[in-house]
Amino acid sequence: xxxxxxxVDQARxxxxxxxxRASALRTAGARRIIEHALARxxxxxRHAGTNAALVPTQxxxxxxxxxxxxxxxxxxxxxxxxxxxxxxxxSYMASEWDTDDLVxxxxxxxxxxxxxxxxxxxxxxxxxxxxxxxxDRNTLGGARDNVRRHYDLSNDLFALFLDPSLSYSSAxxxxxxxxxxxxxxxxHRKIDQLLDLAAVGPGTRLxxxxxGWGELAIRAAGRGAHVLTVTLSEEQRDxxxxxxxxxxxxxxxxxxxxxxxxxxxxxxxxxxxxxxEAVGAEYWPAYFTALRRLLAPGGSVxxxxxxxxxxxxxxxxxxxxxxxxxxxxxxxxxxREAITRESAAAGLRITDDTGYGAHYAETLRLWRDxxxxxSDAADALGFDPVFQxxxxxxxxxxEAGFRSHYLDVRQLRLTADDPAPGGQR
Length: 425
Description:
Elements: H1 14-17, H2 24-38, E1 44-47, E2 67-70, H3 73-93, E3 97-99, H4 102-111, H5 119-122, H6 125-128, H7 140-151, H8 155-161, H9 183-197, E4 205-209, H10 215-222, E5 226-231, H11 234-246, E6 253-257, E7 267-273, H12 284-294, E8 295-307, H13 310-316, H14 322-326, H15 336-345, E9 349-355, H16 357-373, H17 375-380, H18 385-403, E10 408-415
Parallel strand pairs: 1-2, 4-5, 4-7, 5-6, 7-8
Antiparallel strand pairs: 2-3, 8-10, 9-10
């Protein structure tokens, strides 16, 4: 655990460097809500320098109860009073709190999310949560900006914690828990399952929406497919082109810097891996309409998508969260119900749907282990301690989402029986 608050670069992290404005009433209310919630879930909270828990805690089911340690209780409560869960995350970035087990702490919170705020106050949620900024909308220009804010951080950064395939989505292991040496094979297994779902083989005209760093395109080209893969990330495009060339697949795989809404042509198969989360609910109709328009008769779409419960999705759809502010601007995780509804409206039907959330928890655990071991390398790349705490929280937060079953990840096959209208857009 950290020893206390860190010095923060105000120019780089303005909302972490300074405490937000919050009335004494809101701050005191936040403190009471936190203590009320933590008294009812298996999580301890204490002030740094003391041994006694500030609130009682329920016993865990044979598992150690994690402890949340407050280095600056006043700042912690003030941030949450002003900004809710955004403040909770910014307080961690400022090292105002820590824990003996970050994933376990966040898993407890995710598992008891409906118990954290009393029911009468939940009805007033709209009065205190932040709305998503209009600038984060995924217009053609906004989508480019949102992608750059995450995927164009640095290819070298992602290489610090991903396996050599540079696959940035859930792997599929043969056995759990996963082992570090299994990660590349597990990523290839995931890719091959998706290519099988879409019936990709020799001569297949394949469109990939969301290139990543090119591994799926390489494996598809290795099957004899003719691949067009599109991305909005210049960093990813440049490295994917080099990796495809190094694999000797440049004659079969082309990478273009292009929005999915601008792609032309018809394809026997379309594959999109964990890209729908970046589309945003406002543009889901455009996304599925594009899939339908681009699919040749008899073709298949293979999607890999993170999902969340429908009611939780509806509750957070317009909310500006810590994740949307710092990690994935403009993004929203869909529910299975939303995918079913939006795909059907576009003329697609789901013919296969398999979930494997436990595998994503293991994937994230291995990524986070890698990232934490590479602290010096991240620092050498210019990613300061605040960024590293942010990224650590992001990876742990995501792992906790899958361990608590708040999140799932699914592979889906979609088909259309009738030809798409020629003018459909």
